[in-house]
Amino acid sequence: MEQLREVGRPVKRVDAYDKVTGRAMFTDDLCPKPCLEARILHSTIGNGRVLSIDTTEAKKVPGVVAVFTCFDVPDRPYPVAGHPWYADSHAEKRDLADRKLLDDRIRIYGDNIAVVVAEDTVACDRALRKIKVEYEEWPVVYDPKESLKGTEHPVQDIKPDNLVAHTCALTSPENLAKYGYKTVDDAINDPAYHHIAIHTETGEQSQVHIETCTSFCYMEGGKIVCVASTQIPHIMRRVIGQALGIPWGDVRVIKPYIGGGFGTKQDIHYEPLNAWICQQLGGRCVRLELSREELFWDTSGRQPKSFDVEASYGDDMLLHARSIRGWSNTGGYIHHGHALVLNSVNSFRWLYHTNEVASRSEAWTVYTNGPHTGAMRAYGVPEGVWTAECLMGDIAHDNGWDGVEFRLKNCIREGFVDEFTPGGAVAAHTCTLPQCAEKGKEWIHWDEKKREYANQTGPIRHGVGVAFFVYKTAVAPFALETATSRVTLNQDGTVQLQMGATEIGQGADTVFSQMAAEAIGVDTEDVHIVSFQDTDVTPYDPGAYASRQTYVSGTAVKKAGLELREKILAFAHRLYPAAGENLDLRDHAIWDATGRQVCTLASLALEAYYNVDANDQLSAYATANVHTNAIATGCTFADVTVDMPLGKVTVNRIISVQDNGRLINPKLVEQQAHGGMGQSIGFALSEEVQVDPKTGRVLNDTLLDYKIPTMMDLPDLKAEFVESDDPTGPYGNKAVGETPIISPAPAIRDAILNATGVKFYHMPMTPQRLVEGFKREGLI
């Protein structure tokens, strides 16, 4: 790969000092206090209708300013997912609008039916307890397959059969005929091949970000200003406008520093309601912050899913045909809907496909009375890869094959193009998965450990496991991908960079600064970026999701940077024509073709601002519209100890090896990998939102009962990389942010299988599930 000057440097985060010293200002830090406080009244049933709400006593509580109910708000549904919007010419791609500010139709336990506004939170809580609600209650349906059978009262009227969407991608009849088959099932059930069928399940995982969802709203200059902890400020402006029925330009959204999101904040939650309350109260400042408990059941965790899988394979270790059918439980509201399970079945199909003659990827997304769910890190792919790796692990174990060798014979390879993608945009332009696997094997001592752990007995056993992953970059061609960047030369020769893309803790501001510096020809330390986004002044960008920003927004940064560089050199030529045309910008100065310094960049910047005859404030504004995609790949190897009587799994050693293209900042990528691995270990062994299927109520909505791994629960996390130069990325880069969460969980499952011979298909593999499995196999 070409050696670059700023891209590839492990520079310190540009926001590091402010964050570690406490200078960074988050949403609640900026809220003017005292202000009005708002609290939501949630339903105490999981399905039904509000017949009446008596707020008489609540309004008498000292400090209460107003109480609004579901009968007071506009009857105007709006979409809440952080998806791109489309012009009228593509209106069919718009999200379903199925939320209201407050609603008398109860679809989930804890639905939003009223709001109290008071001078303080104590008054809010007292008033909430005095509101009397009369319901008409209906039966709760939590299982998607049961919901598809039909209910007397559809969850959403826009989908009377409770089916959000159903899709199916099949090998064409023409291609099947080449091998003598009429259907995919014929290929799967061909008696010349071995057959396997499994059923897998994955639970709802919560993002558990440190900063809760919070916002405050006020009016200024005739606009509603919403300051919010969000990944998607420009989308939030649009949704608030839609919810309130006002022009989008009458809304201003400001996003300060954010304390994590992982997908929760790729949805719009209470911000439209907060904006409406502010509007009703004459523009007074209103703060609305969710409790930790509310985050568990009234924001959007990972969708629960189940999969039925079949496959056929030969004695030569080659897959012959595969089928996956997935069911996704979106809960009472669509949020991100069918896109999530589509990612699941697509990743299943992409990861192992090389030798298949037939495949089927079918998926259903269903409304139920469960908690509404949505985006979470890696957006459905961990569930699909979990299922693919359960299948591959079982086949390798049952036949005594080496798991790495078997996977490498069938895994995705460089040059893959998805035949079902419009224009073939999803493609593996580069793929170093074999090199990643070799590096992981060496570090974990795969061959040695396999021999050492063979033929174990006793209650405590050891095992090693492996899992591969695949992940696309951004959302093109399935959805619009656009971003804009603005760069300006300051008076001192430094550069101001402005982005609509959001820093949410992942290091985006740092890599944008590096990319801008690379394009312009300056040092990263000379690029100033403001982490706040303000929709009134910030260039448009839909926000942080789908590992898109470095790839898509980075393309806009590079484009704007190169344009500013050309403007700087053109201005230098105007001021110093004797220096010739072939000027260069490097090392804080302008140089001519002979290597002579023409002027410093700082002196040129002063001339650009203050030259009486030729001043020209130099800036560039560039928009990128990206239609390509790039597939990132990698693997995880894990070494575990299993205490079967206790149902306890200890991860001793674990390594993630990834091909993310060129690394813009290796240190930040390593930090991303460590964070994702920790989240995946939690998903593997302990994290699951527990829902009572009879009521739809979340049973473990506290950090005491929802078990995330702490620093005491995690081993040393090892991350390695095999760089490639992807031709579609602005600097050869592809997805990084979400890839680390995908493969650790199935690698741990594979290690448990190696240690005990017991197969588990439900993630997380909690102690209860582990003990039940070991008892079932007679091991304890």
Describe the structure.
This is Xanthine dehydrogenase molybdenum-binding subunit XdhA. Pfam families: Ald_Xan_dh_C, MoCoBD_1, MoCoBD_2. InterPro entries: Ald_Oxase/Xan_DH_a/b (IPR000674), Ald_Oxase/Xan_DH_a/b_sf (IPR036856), Ald_Oxase/xanthine_DH-like (IPR016208), AldOxase/xan_DH_MoCoBD1 (IPR008274), AldOxase/xan_DH_MoCoBD2 (IPR046867), AldOxase/xan_DH_Mopterin-bd_sf (IPR037165), XdhA_XDHase (IPR050028). The two termini are 54 Å apart. Helices cover 28% and strands 24% of the residues. The relative contact order is 0.13. The longest helix is centred in the last third of the chain and has 27 residues, at 549-575. It folds into three domains: 16-24 and 482-625, Aldehyde oxidase/xanthine dehydrogenase, molybdopterin binding domain (Aldehyde Oxidoreductase, domain 4); 31-138 and 213-289, Alpha-Beta Complex (Aldehyde Oxidoreductase, domain 3), CATH 3.90.1170; 301-476 and 628-776, 2-Layer Sandwich (Aldehyde Oxidoreductase, domain 4). The strands form seven sheets. Strands 3-5-1-12-9-10-11-22 form an eight-stranded mixed sheet. Strands 7-16-15-14-8-30 form a six-stranded mixed sheet. α8 crosses α9. The model has no long low-confidence stretch (mean pLDDT 97).
